[in-house]
Structures are given as C-alpha cells and as structure tokens.
Amino acid sequence: MSGLVLEKISRHFGGLKAVDGVSLSIPSGRITSLIGPNGAGKSTVVNLVCGLLRLSEGRVLLDGRDIGSAEAPEIARGGIARTFQTVRLVKDASVLDNVAAGFLGRRRTSLAAQLLALPAARAELRDERAQAAAIIARFGMSALAQAPAGSLSYGHQRRVEMMRALALAPRVLLLDEPVAGMNDGEIVDLGRIFRELADDGIAILLIEHNMRFVLSISDEVHVLDSGRLIASGSPGTVRRDPAVIKAYLGDDYA
Ligand code: ADP
Ligand code: MG
C-alpha cells in the first residue's frame, strides 16, 4: 500500500503505556482521523511517526519501507511533514519567509554553495520562493505574504504552520489539532484545502477534537483510549459505536 502503515506500535513512559500496540493504515489520497479523549496517546503517535520519540515496540512503514529507527530530519526528508498542537513560527519574519523556511529540509545545493551564493544556489532560492508563494495562494493568504507572522490572527498563524509543512512536498501530512480555536468559516475553508491535498495524493492523518469536522471530512476514523484503539471504521460506523460513545463522544453524535 502507498502511504503510511503503523504495525503494533507502542511507547512506554516508565510504567505508563501511552501508546499500546496500535496498528493502522494511513493511505495516500485519503484523510484518516485519530480521535479520543485528552491523554489517549494521539500526539504520542504523531511524535513516534515523525521520529521525535523512539518506538518501544512495533514498526512504521512508509510506502512499505521500515522507517521506525530513522532520525527526525531523515523522516522529514523522506516525505513525512507535521504540524504541532501549538503554533511554532518565527514571529518577526514574514509569512513568505516562514513558509520558505520549510524548504530548508530539502535543499539540493550544498551549504557552501548557498553561502557563496553560487548560481545554482541562487536559482534554487528563487524557485523556493515561487513555490512558497504558490502554497500561500492556495491558502488564500497572498495579501498577507509580507506581513510579520506574529501580527496575524491565531487562525492565520496556524495556516502558516500548515503551509510551512507543505513546503517539504510531503507524501504524508500529520495534522495535530489543526482547526482548534478557529471559527466555522475558517474550518470550512481548511476542510476544503485538506480534501484538495488528499486528492493530490497526500496521505493525511488528522487529530482533532471538533467532531462535526472530523465526521464530515474523514474517510476513516480510528478511536484511541488509554493508548489502545477501541474502534476503527467509517465516520458513520464509529459515531454509533457504543464503546466510542461511552469513552469519548457522549450521546450527542449517536
Ligand atoms: P493526547 O495527544 O491524546 O492528548 P498524549 O499523546 O499527549 O495524549 O499523551 C498520552 C499520555 O502520555 C499522557 O498520559 C501523557 O501525560 C503521557 N506523555 C506524553 N508524552 C510524554 C513524555 N514525553 N514523558 C512522559 N509522559 C508523556
Ligand atoms: Mg495531543
């Protein structure tokens, strides 16, 4: 399968099994969601996949290749990009510069060539800025490209983070609570963009508490509780699952 496969992954912190034998597929071209109560282990799954945390057990396969022991920069270069639960931007730098910073992970010219501003390095820089501008246009933020990132609304800052992740031209995009704190209009816009990215062939893993959003946008939903998957399936199936209603959803979505 093209995309990401997690095979019985676990991560223990001392006696705590934050993630406990989780297996799931995150196929290319689809939006796969991971939901569950606070502390369920969702962010730990993301940190394990992108190499910020080491696996205690299990395997992570990208397009069939085991990347479970790779370091974070190597995994990023291999095509797995992520956003964080909190905004992490260079606030004084422009939107364009923040997005272009995402390219640093995949430069082809050497650092020496860049420092000497050799033609190949200059051409690469121009190319990167053009690509960054295209990403910014896709997110409808061209008018803000030169604005300092720190001057933007919270919703726009989160978009800048996503755009920076996309600068890596990832094959897998891990989104940790991307629409938290956004208004309904912003959420609808982002949902449309996520679907376009999936249609381009990106495998998307979405972690999100906004259930209306998750249920409307996901192709497949997995529910994590205390480190273990308690349900997997289509949004329609999962929202009616008694174990999911009990552990997480309550009766509102049944
Ligand atoms: P979620 O994102 O679903 O809210 P997390 O993955 O952040 O949950 O956390 C799962 C559990 O693992 C929690 O009990 C949390 O306290 C614990 N945990 C997460 N990261 C660490 C860490 N680096 N060291 C110790 N415990 C951690
Ligand atoms: Mg989390």
What compounds sit in this structure? adenosine-5'-diphosphate, magnesium ion
The CATH top-level class label of the domain at 3-79 and 170-253? Alpha Beta
The third-level CATH topology of the domain at 3-79 and 170-253 is Rossmann fold
- Say which CATH homologous superfamily of the domain at 3-79 and 170-253 is assigned: P-loop containing nucleotide triphosphate hydrolases
Radius of gyration: 19 Å
Largest sheet properties? 6 strands, mixed
The secondary structure category is: alpha/beta
Give the rounded overall mean pLDDT: 90
Q: How helix-rich are the residues, as a percent range?
A: 25-40%
Number of strands: 10
Give me the side-by-side strand order of the main sheet.
6-7-8-3-9-10
Low-confidence stretches: none
**Which of globular, elongated, flat, extended, rod-shaped describes the shape?**
globular
Distance between the termini: 32 Å
Beta content: 15-25%
- Summed up, the helix count is 10
CATH arch. level architecture of the domain at 3-79 and 170-253? 3-Layer(aba) Sandwich
- H/E element sequence: EEEHEEHEHHHHEHEHEEHH
